[in-house]
Amino acid sequence: MAERAALEELVKLQGERVRGLKQQKASAELIEEEVAKLLKLKAQLGPDESKQKFVLKTPKGTRDYSPRQMAVREKVFDVIIRCFKRHGAEVIDTPVFELKETLMGKYGEDSKLIYDLKDQGGELLSLRYDLTVPFARYLAMNKLTNIKRYHIAKVYRRDNPAMTRGRYREFYQCDFDIAGNFDPMIPDAECLKIMCEILSSLQIGDFLVKVNDRRILDGMFAICGVSDSKFRTICSSVDKLDKLPRGP
């Protein structure tokens, strides 16, 4: 810092000398010589990083929310949470980051979208990609076999964001899960009912709920001869079909 201050003082003095020579209408050769000295001093000084301009903005794929937008979000969350509780669900929370080994290998090709954190005290950590894997880890750690839970929290994906289409790198997920042994299709029917109740309460207009069965996809892959090692990768590719642009 002291060295930089000394250089700044020399630049100031040399600048004053150049201005003085110009006012005195000194010879062009002398002025040129002193200007060269000034430029040399400025080159030694270099840019002042503390004074460099930078643009204030949010990280790519994220955004701020105004008080008005937060009021809308809180109202929507209130509708969702009241519905979840009405169906007997309990809320849980999990860390925003997990051990990297907990998350890796659970998402197939999409594992590359997981945000890794720097080594913290010998632990390799990653930001959670969704709320499902942390829930599975929670069940295993606590040896739970029956629970109806909901969890509303932010998740993170190092994806290529499309802000105009609502595709962000940081966003909320609202999860409702029923873990345990129940009569066939009863939990599935309840989840569909919850979804319809929430969308109806939000008064978003007409909506269409599409229902799929994983066993149909399993059967299609089996007929096509897809090996188990490629199952997750192809599932991820199929999942992206709806996101691809359609032809005319």
From TrEMBL:
<dbReference type="GO" id="GO:0005524">
    <property type="term" value="F:ATP binding"/>
</dbReference>
<keyword id="KW-0547">Nucleotide-binding</keyword>
<dbReference type="Pfam" id="PF00458">
    <property type="entry name" value="WHEP-TRS"/>
</dbReference>
<dbReference type="InterPro" id="IPR041715">
    <property type="entry name" value="HisRS-like_core"/>
</dbReference>
<dbReference type="Pfam" id="PF13393">
    <property type="entry name" value="tRNA-synt_His"/>
</dbReference>
<feature type="domain" description="WHEP-TRS">
    <location>
        <begin position="3"/>
        <end position="59"/>
    </location>
</feature>
<dbReference type="GO" id="GO:0006418">
    <property type="term" value="P:tRNA aminoacylation for protein translation"/>
</dbReference>
<keyword id="KW-0030">Aminoacyl-tRNA synthetase</keyword>
<keyword id="KW-0436">Ligase</keyword>
<keyword id="KW-0067">ATP-binding</keyword>
<protein>
    <recommendedName>
        <fullName>Histidyl-tRNA synthetase</fullName>
    </recommendedName>
</protein>
<dbReference type="InterPro" id="IPR000738">
    <property type="entry name" value="WHEP-TRS_dom"/>
</dbReference>
<dbReference type="InterPro" id="IPR009068">
    <property type="entry name" value="uS15_NS1_RNA-bd_sf"/>
</dbReference>
<dbReference type="GO" id="GO:0004812">
    <property type="term" value="F:aminoacyl-tRNA ligase activity"/>
</dbReference>
<keyword id="KW-0648">Protein biosynthesis</keyword>
<dbReference type="InterPro" id="IPR045864">
    <property type="entry name" value="aa-tRNA-synth_II/BPL/LPL"/>
</dbReference>
